[in-house]
Amino acid sequence: MRSPRSVPVLVLTSTFVIGLLAGCGSDPASPDAQATAGTQDEQVTLSVVSLIPGSEQAAFDAFDERVAQFEEMNPNITIEPVEYEWRATTFAAQLAGGTLPDVYEIPLTDAKTLIENGQLADIDAQFKALPYAADFNETLLAAGMGEDGKVYAIPAKSIYGVALHYNRALFTQAGLDPDNPPTTWDEVREDAKTIKDATGVAGYATMAANNTGGWQLTAATYSRGGRVQQDNGDGTYTATLDNDGTRAALQFLHDLRWEDDSLLADTTLDWGTINQAFAAGQTAMYTSGSDVFTSLVETNGVTSDDYGLTAIPTEGADAGVLVGGTLAAVNVKADDATKAAAIKWIDFFYLSKLLDQEQAVADAQVRFDNGQPVGTPVLPIFSRDQYELSLEWVADFINVPLDQMTGYTSVMFDQPVVGEPSRSTQETYGALDVMIQAVLSDQNADIDALVQQGNTTVQALLDAD
Amino acid sequence: MTSYQVVQIIEPSGRRHTLADWVRRGGLSRLVFALPLLVVFGVFSWLPIGRAVVMSFQETNLIESSWVGMDNFRAVFADPLLGQAVRNTGWFALLALVFGYPVPLVGAVLMSTVRRMKGLYSVLAYLPVVVPPVVAVLLWKFFYDPRPEGVFNTMLGWVGLGPFPWLQDQTWAMPSLVLEATWAAAGGTVIIYLAAMTSVPAELYDAAEVDGASLWRKIWHVTMPHLRGVLLITLILQIIGTAQVFLEPYLFTSGGPANATVTVLLLIYRYAFGQSLGSDYGMATALSLLLALFLGVLSLVYFRLTRSWSTS
Asked: Given CB atoms, is B62 within the 8 Å cutoff of chain A?
């Protein structure tokens, strides 16, 4: 039996240890955390989105150089870069867990819902202070405004139209002319088969998972004149997943998969992994946002030589090109000093290169020096003239193979544009995902039944909203 | 009589046991030793379980919540995907039972008959368990490439078996998952069985030898009855474990293709984190609660039924 004297010693020791541990937490009332509202001379630490995790070191170097330039201009702001990739499956968890950076990027279609849920900071006052606040493309700006007319998210980058990307080397290897990419869906099918027969590599691939499959199927639907959702004008929406365009797109995928065997048979491809597959030469063609070349270079190490870009084939009346883009938003928990710093960063990093010649050149110089793409075709955030002016400023630094992208750039401003479905977007995409996966994994998939079922599911969601 | 009772008799009658007595007898040191355990389990296990039960009756976004009674449970039962998830989970559990349950047993029996290099076989058996699950899944995902150049398809091609679609076919996806899950988990159970087999008295084997029993008769009549208790425990543990399978469907196929590998846990994950805007934690916790209740009832029934067969 232990001596009774050791008990008080033990009690004292444990109390001491527990007390130590309790005191180790951060003190929320420390002076740093409570920056005086509105004062811009307080030291502010701003966490911002940098690049997709796993990007090339050169891309990170380019980013860090821009951060250094910004910190030099704004000595009171310290930037903390955070690697980040927007994914439908992890965004909600990060938002709820509060691990999103102060400035982060969201797709165009998500902004309205996030604003309704009160998850974006009101940056209207800071936004209006920008000298060019009135010059934004109105449709893009409206996507980041709430019902109260205030701005919660600012159009930032990568305004894209969905386009067709192809591997010029594989085209050449298969005996096709890389300067003459397919312009109709039938030609896509023929070329895919030729490539598969000649080289053994899948001629075409499609995203199918994590809602990106639905995104591409929607683009394929638009390109064939269909629509997946109808705004009834009175606040209600009707799901139209069972339209002819979607059926035709699914039939196309089915034929490529089971009749021609020219489709990459992978139902787990999403935005990031299809880029990987393309970079690894596992597929000759696929559709994605027109600006994906930047990411292919930054993250997948693609070189210019083999890359080609052309317009997505559009057929039929009402055919259109799906457009989307990225907005910059500020974490709802940010205080005024952080919001002020955030606007400065958004202005500097995303927008100044489009409006200010000095910044455009500085940004292009940094990217050029680090071997990062300059001049990837994107749709304008301000006006077309402003966009073309900004390209003139950086003409000396443009290193993307623009002559291999003429299939897209020659028509990009003339294509009829259609926005993503505005209500329950991600759920619609999720339902479309299931259709693509079913068609790719089951030779006898009943396309009619699939679209009907998907339509019923999405309609139930739209009605519930 | 225990020493405690003796002490009680020796003390003057009518004296109550005070706090000081408890402290003197070492009650405080017992509490202090138990405190870290209580705190850790309380904060990381019991508190979240309690919160989950509360959340299953609320509609919440983790910042504001409102009570909605049984709405979440009703919504869960109304979900058309629930039936598919339950069926898929049952299918996974059944496949894992039929193919995965005997494998560690056979492995352990074979290893116990080996005379030399027993340690080497133990290491080889346990190695898959040591590989981090995510790494293992990504590795197998690569092996499961459906093209003829895929690793497994190439190996099977050597013996003339055609290229298989593995994860890309709705019928093949679940068995592919079970194969990897068995490979990853069998080693741990093998070690448990080997340890249990060392408790079999050697004289029994000698007696069986004298009676002219072959190796397999010895296993059936001597080893197996002794392993009965362990086998029953590992069976219910396997059922409970496979009912909660999440890692393989999530990493291999994200529930695809076309929801062929959606399991109950994956459905819970989708409710909670699947929608990029506005997650339904209420529905997620409601389904978790239902699953926990089901497994609890199952275990009770199981232990009732097997009471006569177990050795405890």
From this structure: yes
Question: Are the C-beta atoms of B170 and B257 separated by less than 8 Å?
Answer: yes
Euclidean distance between CA atoms A63 and A46, whole angstroms: 15
CA pair distance B305, B300, nearest whole angstrom: 9
Stretch 84-143 of chain B: residues touching chain A, C-beta under 8 Å: none
Number of Cβ within a 10 Å radius of residue A25: 7
Instruction: Compare all CA atoms of chain A with the CA of B146 and give the residue at the minimum distance.
Output: A265
- pLDDT tens, N- to C-terminus, chain A (465 residues): 444 455 555 555 555 455 444 444 433 333 344 444 444 568 999 999 998 888 888 889 999 999 999 999 999 999 999 998 877 667 767 777 778 899 999 888 788 878 877 778 999 999 999 999 999 988 888 889 888 889 999 999 989 999 999 999 999 999 999 999 999 999 999 999 999 999 999 999 999 998 899 999 999 999 999 999 998 888 889 999 999 999 999 999 999 999 999 999 999 999 999 999 999 999 999 999 999 999 998 889 888 889 999 999 999 889 999 999 999 999 888 889 999 999 999 999 999 999 999 999 999 998 898 888 899 999 999 988 999 999 999 999 999 999 999 999 999 998 898 888 888 888 899 899 999 999 999 999 999 999 999 999 999 888 876
Second-level CATH architecture of A162-323+410-464: 3-Layer(aba) Sandwich (3.40)
Residue B249: closest CA among chain A residues belongs to which residue? Answer: A268
CA distance A404 to B20: 88
Instruction: Please name which of A327, A277, A265, A323 lies closest in space to residue A302, comparing C-alpha atoms.
Output: A277
ipTM here: 0.78
Tokens 């039939």 locate to: A251
Tell me the pTM. Answer: 0.82
Please check whether residue B131 lies inside any domain of the structure: yes
Residue B188 lies in a domain: yes
CB contact under 8 Å between A208 and B35, yes or no, is no
| Cβ separation A442–B29 shorter than 8 A | no
**Cβ atoms of A290 and A377 closer than 8 Å:** yes
Please judge whether B254 and A210 are an interchain contact, meaning their C-beta atoms are less than 8 angstroms apart: yes
Token pair in block for residue B1: 């009589």
CA dist A430 and A416 (Å) reads 25
Cβ contact A185:A252 at 8 Å: yes
| Angle at CA of residue B265, ends B263 and B270, nearest 5° | 95
Per the structure, the count of domains in chain B is 1
With H, G, I as helix, E, B as strand and everything else as coil, classify residue A85: coil
- Report the distance separating Cα A341 and Cα A38, nearest Å: 10
Nearest Cβ partner of B276 from A10, A266, A426?
A426
Is the Cβ pair A92, B276 closer than 8 Å? yes
* Contact list, B274 vs chain A (CB under 8 Å): 88-89, 92, 430
User: Do residues A354 and A381 make contact, with C-beta atoms less than 8 angstroms apart?
Assistant: yes
Same fold, A44-159+325-386 and A162-323+410-464: yes
Superfamily (CATH) of domain A44-159+325-386: Periplasmic binding protein-like II (3.40.190.10)
Q: What secondary structure does DSSP assign to A52-101, as a single string?
A: -TT--HHHHHHHHHHHHHHHHH-TTEEEEEE-----HHHHHHHHHHT-S-
CATH of the domain at B154: 1.10.3720.10
Amino acid at A316: G
Q: So where are chain A's domains?
A: 44-159+325-386, 162-323+410-464
Domain coverage including residue B165: 76-305
User: Is the CB of B279 less than 8 angstroms away from the CB of A7?
Assistant: no
Q: Among A14, A88, A209, whose Cβ lies nearest the Cβ of B32?
A: A14
Q: Which of residues 240-259 of B touch A (CB under 8 A)?
A: 252-254, 256-259
b/e map A70-95, b = 16+ CB within 10 Å: beeebeebebebbebbbbbbbbbbbb
Tokens at A423, concatenated: 């209500």
Under 8 Å between Cβ of A90 and A83: no
